[in-house]
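pls design
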């Protein structure tokens, strides 16, 4: 198989903002003349409301374009669809037949597994997760109280797996190797609004569960292992923990917002042991302040603004601009070094100014962490290089005309993810 068709290069970041229908693509425009464009424009998918661009237009599938997961060039959408935005191929699959789990106060997290170097087929896993005590949907009289004393995760752990090879769902039971994390009752305490993110690395799925552990799920032998994390998520939400991967392995990224402290670990799996090795422990304030003092801006990345172009311009021809999908977005892998880029601030630096830092993702092949920094003057995309502890300013990531989509004008991300395009033509045929 041709290496240039495989997901071996980094193209940019998909960023899905709350109240936007489609994800946006944030990347550096390339001078390439190949004509291959990456875009968040998913309007080629079937839709019951193709012109419905805002949540108040009551489109049945408005939330169907939320990106639930991604893997090696494919996106898993909440409308039971897997799509390749590079080739614009897609494949719908039937709803999961998961049984009602109200009595145990559980829900299922959906994840995508795809490796074109092994097979053109993908799998979707529905993995059971616990609701916390603040999000329980039945009271103690209705719940199975014996469940609260059970070990978690369960063993065997029942998961639902859809295969594009068979086009059907299958119940699969995964056996735990080693000890459990905690009891169910203990797991329900200590976390809020947690996102069970996952990464696929070397034929295993690593899923961040609860506040203090990962599940390493081996799909080849239907087994899983609990991996304790080196840090526990705080109840007040001030600690942002993300799981990521690069070519060197699986990472855990923790950002303590109130102190602007960043810590990064890599998982050492040599000799059958699971050990977290600290890669970086830094106060980002001094690094960021150097950019905030400077008045120049040299960020070259562009946000696609597909939602504004498609929906806002339909209703206001005076604001129309040519759709940006004609631009080509491609990460220049030969130019990953820190460039002469500076943070843009229209006013003089003010130590009392409030900045909000959020993690956008991790470079899939280099030790580079993508961040966004928000203030009253806008949102800037940043790249933090672990090797050298330097910040690169990427560009403006504030979506155009966002107040049209969100009455509160409060910009929030639903999700963000790095994207490695896959150009192989062996994707399962469209339905």
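designed seq:
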């Amino acid at each position: 198989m041709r290496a240039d068709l495989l997901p071996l290069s980094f193209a940019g970041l998909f960023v899905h903002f709350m109240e936007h229908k489609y994800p946006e693509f944030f990347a550096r425009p390339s001078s390439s003349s190949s004509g291959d464009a990456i875009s968040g424009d998913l309007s080629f998918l079937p839709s019951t409301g193709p012109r419905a661009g805002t949540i108040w237009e009551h489109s049945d599938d408005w939330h169907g374009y939320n990106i639930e997961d991604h893997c090696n060039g494919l996106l898993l959408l909440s409308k039971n669809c897997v799509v390749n935005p590079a080739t614009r191929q897609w494949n719908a699959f039937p709803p999961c037949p998961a049984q009602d789990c109200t009595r145990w106060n559980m829900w299922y997290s959906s994840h995508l597994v795809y490796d074109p170097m092994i097979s053109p087929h993908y799998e979707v896993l529905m993995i059971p997760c616990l609701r916390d005590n603040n999000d329980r949907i039945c009271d103690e009289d209705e719940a199975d109280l014996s469940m609260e004393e059970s070990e978690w995760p369960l063993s065997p752990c029942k998961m639902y797996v859809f295969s594009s090879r068979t086009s059907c769902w299958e119940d699969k039971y995964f056996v735990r190797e080693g000890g459990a994390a905690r009891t169910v009752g203990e797991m329900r305490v200590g976390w809020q609004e947690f996102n069970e993110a996952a990464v696929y690395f070397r034929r295993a799925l690593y899923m961040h569960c609860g506040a203090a552990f990962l599940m390493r799920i081996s799909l080849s032998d239907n087994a899983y292992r609990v991996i304790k994390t080196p840090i526990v998520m705080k109840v007040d939400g001030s600690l942002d923990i993300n799981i990521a991967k690069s070519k060197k392995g699986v990472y855990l990224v923790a950002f303590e917002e109130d102190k602007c402290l960043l810590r990064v670990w890599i998982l050492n799996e040599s000799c059958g042991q699971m050990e977290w090795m600290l890669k970086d422990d830094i106060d980002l304030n001094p690094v960021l302040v150097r950019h905030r003092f400077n008045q120049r801006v040299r960020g070259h990345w562009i946000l696609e603004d597909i939602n504004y172009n498609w929906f806002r311009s339909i209703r206001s021809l005076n604001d129309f601009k040519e759709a940006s999908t004609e631009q080509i977005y491609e990460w220049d892998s030969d130019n990953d070094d820190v460039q002469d880029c500076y943070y843009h601030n229209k006013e003089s630096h003010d130590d009392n100014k409030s900045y909000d830092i959020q993690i956008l993702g991790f470079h899939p092949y280099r030790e580079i962490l993508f961040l966004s920094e928000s203030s009253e003057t806008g949102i800037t995309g940043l790249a933090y290089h672990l090797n050298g502890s330097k910040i690169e300013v990427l560009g403006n990531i504030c979506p155009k005309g966002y107040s049209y989509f969100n009455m509160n004008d409060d910009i929030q991300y639903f999700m963000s993810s790095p994207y490695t395009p896959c150009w192989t033509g062996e994707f399962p045929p469209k339905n």
